[in-house]
Design brief:
Dimer of large and small chains. By secondary structure, the chain is an alpha+beta fold. It has four helices and nine strands. The longest helix is centred in the middle third of the chain and has 13 residues.
Amino acid sequence: MSNTEMTRNILSVLVQDIEGIISRVSGMFTRRGFNLVSLVSAKTDTEGINRITIVVDADELRIEQITKQLNKIIPVLKVVRLDEDTTIARALMLVKVAADANNRPQIVDAANIFRARVVDVAQESVVIEATGTPGKLRALLDVLEPFGIRELIQSGQIALNRGPKTMAPSKF
């Protein structure tokens, strides 16, 4: 093994939209002992094609193995390892924060600083929606924590290359 340093990697996978494809992809990770950080599947602009964004912590050898194994799954059309320097990656987070009349303005100000949105206000809480990199979302949580986080959910990352480069030919 030439490089055993574990790094965060984002793989973008185009697949046919068939029943069970997510199970087959996630099962490959389970069978091979690879640890998924996140897996997000969504429709693309092409009918019948989905895009799966996989985030995994792995060294170079394991990323090569993962890519080869993914390419062996028949409904997989294309696997691309996204370069951190040329990729836009975002996750979504909803966080419910304890709030009252006294601290609500501070919570709203904190949300605004992070370009997050208040999506629900109740007598004893505020729900904030934020998108961004894992670091940005962690920083927002650090600011909100003193107020009391009541509930939290965060999606996996989705990602696209910057500029004109695409995974598939454009329809236009």
